[in-house]
Amino acid sequence: NAGVTQTPKFQVLKTGQSMTLQCAQDMNHEYMSWYRQDPGMGLRLIHYSVGAGITDQGEVPNGYNVSRSTTEDFPLRLLSAAPSQTSVYFCASSYSVRQETQYFGPGTRLLVL
Amino acid sequence: DQQVKQNSPSLSVQEGRISILNCDYTNSMFDYFLWYKKYPAEGPTFLISISSIKDKNEDGRFTVFLNKSAKHLSLHIVPSQPGDSAVYFCAASGGRDDKIIFGKGTRLHILP
Question: Which residues of B touch A44 (CB under 8 A)?
Answer without folding.
Answer: 102
